[in-house]
Here is the input.
Amino acid sequence: MDRIATPSMTREIINKYGLRMHKTLGQNFLIEPKFIEKIMEAAEIKDNQVVVEIGPGIGALTQGLAEKAAGVIALEIDRGLIDVLQDIFREKTNVHVVHGDALKVDFDLLVQEQMGKRAIPYKVVANLPYYITTPIIMRLLEGGFHFSSLVLMVQKEVARRMAALPGTKDYGALSIGVQYFCKPQLITTVPPTVFYPKPEVESTVIRLDKRERPAVVVTNEKIFFALVKAAFGQRRKTLLNALSNSGYPLNKEEWQHLLEMSRLDPKRRGETLSLEEFAVLANHLSDKGT
Ligand code: SAM
Here is the structure.
């Protein structure tokens, strides 16, 4: 079959199946094969590996993945695209089209059901719908699923936030959430012109390699992430003021004491703290049993 990721093939498929694009589902299809290749290169798929693709659309990326992987599980929420995908890939026995929601599915179970237990760990590759990029990423990370890497096309600003270092304007709770579990690597920026329809934003391909264990030792992850959220809740305030006003059941003196124990200057802003510094503070907070 010809490349799906071209303007003419995309038009042909849309016309053939009488498709209507759903903006509310973040449907922007890739129409430039060069970027399929870049995503494929970044994903480094071996012929014995299984890939979960979130949101295959009309299969632009699925086609590339199917040429390399032992199995591609294409998870699509749009019911209207399921028969289309099944028809397009009817001769590809390694493509498994599944109707489902990336915000609800148990990814490990999905892979196990489609390909068996030995397919775990698997890779995840996606040109993500913009409207739920962050919730999908956080779900993949916090869900404890056994993937080895994620290669994702996301809005440029979101990719920057994922890879941002302490003290920069992009650094925030998302940077910490991502970097706690994964090592991020920005791959390439992607202009709006290579999608149909054209989105209003620029995109970036980012690769996230899952760490064998989290980047820092944290005794209670819930407390760690709640603390991060509290510190970034009021970015412009000092750490002491942001934490004291965060609604946590600790008064200013208690926070002051915890910051001292953690050797952190209370006048610093949360956005300057490294993962290690957040971990030290969170572990002292956990010890307090609050
Ligand atoms: N992979 C295709 C490509 O690159 O041309 C399509 C990418 S398009 C940006 C996003 C796709 O995700 C759409 O097909 C959309 O229907 C699908 N989608 C949206 N929300 C979803 C969800 N919660 N779970 C699974 N797929 C979803």
About this structure: The chain has a mean pLDDT of 96. The pocket of S-adenosylmethionine is lined by residues 25-30, 54-57, 60-61, 75-78, 101-103, 127, 129, 132 (CB under 6 Å).
